[in-house]
Amino acid sequence: MDIEDLQTFVAVADAGGVSAAARRLGVSKSIVSRRLFRVEAELGVQLLARTTRGAALTEAGMTFRDHAARASAEIDTARETILPTGELRGRLRVAMPLSFGPTHFAPVLAEMARHHPQLHIHTSYSDRFVDLIAEGFDCAIRVGYLQDSNLIARRVGPIYGKLVASPDYVKAHGSPETVEQLVDHQALMQGTEAWRFMDGDKIVTVQPQGRFKADNATALAAAAAAGLGIAWLPDCITYEYVASGALVPVMTRYPPPSAGAYVVRPPGKHPTRKVRILIEMLIENFARNPDVWGVDR
Fold it and tell me: Tens digit of pLDDT for each residue in 211-224?
């Protein structure tokens, strides 16, 4: 059985349909359908029941999917093992935040592609948390404080941030001096997140309130500069605003604890070599360019 056909079946099973799998694999729907036909013809059983919404696994398909996924993973590992030292090939699908993914992480992926000309890198930029398994990503880069999940995370660097507001906002509404006073101010947030601050050795958590929300840190920085409220933002987003005087730090006696940049991947025994090398390059990038990330403190 052709390994490409096997991997295509796994992609369809995980994506829930031919169209979604085709987008994930970067091939046409007709190619995906032909590969599925060959797998089912060789096995002599129906693995997928086509529906108006996509495709559902039959009982045989559910059993075969796990074996096929393990076999595909073993083949990928074997291929990596026999490749010449340092050479990467195949495809790497990465999800990363839109806020500063294109400016801060994209150069690392471009460097990776330059060093490995046989590697195909597909990147999705979005501030939503993608479902790595359902959407077929090898890994994602996430920034901030990670929530508990079954994903495996590797910290690649620290992210420092601070509370900021515009001089006009401070002039009109004052600047909070304590954590308790913060709840009386308009907070610029991504959603309903809690903010954490250091009070000596203790971490104090606050549930801020505000009328302006955006799922993008760059948009929140612009809103803060427009005088709409106070925002907690990474230094790499606010650096130029603060340098120009458009934003000023507030409540500096209670700094937020340092967050982090992480590479997260689906659970498994070992990361693929492609993901391992991406992690190494990101760690090196943080060490080589600390001022870009606001970590040269």
Answer: 999 988 899 999 99
Q: Which residues contact 176 (CB under 8 A, 6 or more apart)?
A: 182, 184, 185, 230, 250, 251
Distance CA 265, CA 285 (A): 20
* pLDDT (tens digit per residue) in 153-164: 999 988 889 999
Domain check: are 152 and 196 in the same one? no
pTM of the model: 0.72
123: CATH: 3.40.190.10
What confidence score (pLDDT) does residue 51 get?
72
User: What domain range is 229 assigned to?
Assistant: 161-257
The reply to whether 175 and 239 lie within a common domain is: yes
Q: In this structure, are residues 220 and 188 in contact, taking their beta carbons and an 8 Å threshold?
A: yes
Rounded Cα distance between 250 and 78, Å, is 54
Asked if 65 and 208 sit in the same domain, the reply is: no
Contact 16, 135 (CB under 8 A): no
DSSP secondary structure of 181-226: HHTTSPEEESSS--EEEEETTEEEEE----SEE-S-HHHHHHHHHT
164's enclosing H/E stretch is strand 161-165
Give the pLDDT confidence of 244-267 residue by residue, as tens digits: 999 999 999 999 988 889 999 987
Of 82, 116, 133, the residue at which a domain comes to its end is 82
Residues 138 and 66 in one domain: no
Q: CA 3 to CA 40: how far, in whole Å?
A: 14
